[in-house]
Specification:
Blueprint: H1 12-32, H2 39-46, H3 50-57, H4 60-78, H5 88-104, H6 106-118, H7 120-123, H8 132-148, H9 156-172, H10 174-181, H11 185-204, H12 207-217
Helix pairs in contact: 1-2, 1-4, 1-6, 2-3, 5-6, 5-9, 5-11, 6-9, 8-9
DNA-binding region: 38-57
Keywords: DNA-binding, Transcription, Transcription regulation
Domain HTH tetR-type: 15-75
């Protein structure tokens, strides 16, 4: 019997080149956008020829799509697995996770903001919306709380879009905030986090939540006599 020939994976140096190309493309797309970035610039950043880059990825559109897949996987890794009942603290922590991601992965956060603002033509042809799973998990948690009566009724989807947009814009504007306002960014992030917590909690809070909170803060009266 003929000996079976094992299938060979891609050589390690090819995989390393792919990763370096994706990392360089990620940074350039984030700073200059899809239209403002050329394959020549990506290949120069990696130290290979444009022909080699095309051989690896085929086209700028495919390279950009792979960068967006990296963005989606990065976001998915930050989505909290929620097993407990919906609560204000749980939803606050979910948004704080996105805030952490936006500063841990600033190039991806900047790219996400560009994609939200600049992709009107591409979105009509997109096979996958890379924010969908993240948004769906947030909306599902809020609607679960609304259904149980833990949260007040409002448009959960628009609230999630609004809050994620505010976080993304704050992260993308961080260098400008740092230079224009001359504030310590660590302090600014802490202040933003507190504001985020307050705003999310205020949006979710029902009258019952307020009454319960007021009762818990009111000191017990001493009995007379």
């Amino acid at each position: 019997m003929p000996t079976a020939i094992p299938k060979l994976g891609r050589p390690k140096h090819v995989k390393d080149t792919d990763l370096r190309c994706l990392a360089a493309a990620e940074e350039l797309f984030a700073v200059r956008g899809f239209e403002g970035t050329s394959l020549r610039e990506v290949s120069a950043a990696v130290g290979i020829t444009s022909a080699a880059l095309i051989h690896h990825f085929g086209s700028k559109e495919r390279l950009y799509g792979l960068v967006l897949e990296r963005l989606a996987k990065s976001l998915d890794s930050y989505i909290m697995e929620i097993s407990e009942p919906a609560s204000i603290e749980t939803v606050v922590r979910m948004f704080e996770r996105f805030l952490d991601w936006s500063f841990d992965q600033q190039h991806l956060a900047q790219l996400l903001l560009r994609e939200l603002m600049e992709n009107r033509t591409r979105v009509s042809r997109a096979r996958r919306m890379h924010l969908l799973s993240l948004i769906a998990s947030y909306v599902e948690q809020i609607r679960s709380g609304q259904k149980s009566g833990a949260f007040r009724q409002f448009d959960a989807e628009l609230f999630v879009y609004y809050t994620l947009g505010a976080i993304t814009h704050f992260s993308a504007a961080a260098p400008t905030i740092d230079r224009m306002l001359r504030v310590d960014m660590g302090d600014a992030i802490s202040r933003f986090r507190l504001t985020l917590r307050d705003n999310v909690a205020a949006m979710l809070t029902t009258n019952q939540n307020i009454r319960s909170s007021s009762r818990s803060k009111t000191p017990a009266r001493r009995p007379r006599g």
